[in-house]
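Holo prediction. Input below; ligand is C2E.
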Amino acid sequence: MEEKKEQKTILIVDDDCINRMLLKKIFGADYAILEARDGLDALRVLRSMQPITAVILDLQMPELDGFGVLEQMQRDPALSTIPVIIVTGSDDSETQNRALAYGAVDVITKPFDPVTIQLRIHRLIALLRASKLEEENKWLKELAHLSKTDAKTGLWNKQTFCQETQKLLTADPGGSYALVRWDIDNFKVFNDTYGTSAGDALLLKIGEQCQLYAKDHPALRTHGHYDADHFVGLWNKDAFAPEQLHRDILAILRSAFPDYTFSVHFGMYAFDAQTLDVGIMCDRALLALRSVKNAYDEHYAWYCAAMRTEVLEEQSIVSAMKDALVKGQFIPYFQPQYNYATGKLIGAEALVRWNHPEKGLIFPDKFIPLFEKNGFIYELDRSIWEQVCVYLKKWKDEGVVLPSVSVNISRRDLYHPGLVDGFRALIEKYALDPSMLHLEITESAYVDSPDLVLNMVAQLQSTGFKVEMDDFGSGYSSLNTLKDVHVDLLKLDMAFVAPNANHSRSGSILTSVVGMAHAIRLPVIAEGVETRQQADYLKSIGCLYMQGYYFAKPMPASDFRSLLENHPVSTKQDARFYPGIDHSVDFLDATTQSTLLFNSFVGGAGILEYRGGNAAALRLNDKYYEVLGITAAEYVDKQYHLLDTIDSKYRKVFIDMLETAIRTGEEADCEAYTIPLREDAEPVCVRCQVRFLAEKVDSYIFYLSIENITERKNSQRQSSMYANIIRNFPMGLAVYEL
Ligand code: C2E
Ligand code: CA
Ligand code: CA
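Structure of the complex:
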């Protein structure tokens, strides 16, 4: 309705009332007519906000002429789109062109034929209207396109992708397809490095490249931008090749931003007949994507039913957690820790278990990561800490000799303002010595927010707690971090350094970490020790504290209590410090084989490093200690200063032997007496044999074997003494017994 009314209003502007009447007569039947006597009058009418379809304008007028009106109209956005038809007495083309240049759409000269002018203006208005409609249409289309695509990439947005994919699948209900969802690894890092606008530009470029790619790959049936940095595509399954797609996506990213090394992961959901909503399929592809998200060597995964079960399990865990806490279903288990050299129990780590009434014992990897995400972890941890204190107090009151117990602090707990006070309150409530409680903070927490952690560590230590750095070696921080973080104990996880994937590397990681820790006087405990070989190896490099299945699995409190009663306990964990050691020779590898070989060697043997006049035993086998009649624990201080253990008269002989072996590349040997190796012991005479193994930047590595020849030596001495006696005896026979 309104459009029609608008269509019908014409403003006639002419100072000549005859002309106005004439025109009114011609157009009055089809249009509503407004009139103006001069230019100013015309502008007044125009600005009165009445909808005007067209203006018929005279050029020569008082006050403001037609050009002036055109000029004003052009300047006013509300008026500039109204078509103006000039009716003029002047027929010179200059005036006419000028009028057109001022924005008029047509010029009609007087005197005019009424029919002609009527037809011309009708037609003009119709034409203008049509073109206006077309323009509007175009704009509407554009709008529709914009809402179907996503402004960041120019690709179909989530909704359009789902709709269009659904259309396609409806048309081919039995078709086999693969729905793929991919995202850029650490897109956040890209944004942080180059700025969000570069991130936006990247997404746009990826969008362009994807369009081109889709044109070249007809098997990619639909594709779009799902959200954030997630992209989706539907492929014909038979033409889909994940390896190739991985390469193609990387190529797309490279062409979008050549200066950055991208990595991507994707998840895929395959089906032979559609049974699920497209959105749900995208969710499943996401589950598959998440299953490999952090994998280093796998870039994609197919969805499988187990992934969904996992999600459902997660949901059931979350809905049950609060109730479970109240009902006391979260309990600490205790995994003992030992000094491998003395065999004494030195402590335990408290590890949470969910004692589920139907599902049985649930392990923390099933729920801890979830609780860390949803924030429940603090409540859970506090409950475990308190339960540990309750046990310690109870056992102490019952007269059990107690070692310290470590509890885990989740990185999320560190953000809790009440953490330190909470621990203080616990200790007071149960009248415990704070050093009884060791607090484990995972290494990655130090990396994420070093300042916060350093501050926390300092506060906890000033209250008397011992702080341990957990999971050291998991790959986040460098050895240098150790110098900045003043923790009381370093916890090495064998899973990160143990010999399997790369034997020689893990061996040398272990030795350098232990060496470094000794250098800065930081005690080390190894956890996840599963075999005797690992334990022996650790001992041979001077790491004596151990925890792992080789010794005992985490156990219920009652079992741990009886262990405490039946096993020697060391209540004082004296730190042992060694100088840094070098490595990389075959014997230093923690490979099971070489450790076995090393330990099954019939005699005492070790790896010796000679550097700057100092000789240090980097590794020693069990026989070595036996030969010297000493324990590993007693020798541990001495093994890094071997020369100090040799009687001063024999040191030169020992060094000469090393120098000879270096010079000749052959085996060399010597005999030397040690100093008394413990208070009540006699000096031992040892036959040493060395084989030069390797030359390092500033040191030499030897294989050293020893033999105890004290008895032989002593009897030799004795016999030469008797020989002397006999020689000097004036006459007769002497009998002696050895
Ligand atoms: P973690 O702190 O590194 O604990 C050591 C894990 O290694 C424990 O797993 C332990 O049972 C396991 N383990 C011990 N010896 C061996 C071995 O010889 N070989 C192998 N392969 N594993 C061994 P668990 O109890 O399943 O705990 C897993 C993780 O859950 C813990 O890793 C810790 O990060 C977390 N966690 C456990 N209890 C708590 C807790 O009370 N609070 C918090 N925040 N986290 C906890
Ligand atoms: Ca731990
Ligand atoms: Ca650990």
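The pocket of calcium ion (ligand 3) is lined by residues 470-471, 491, 493, 527 (CB under 6 Å). That is the main takeaway for now.
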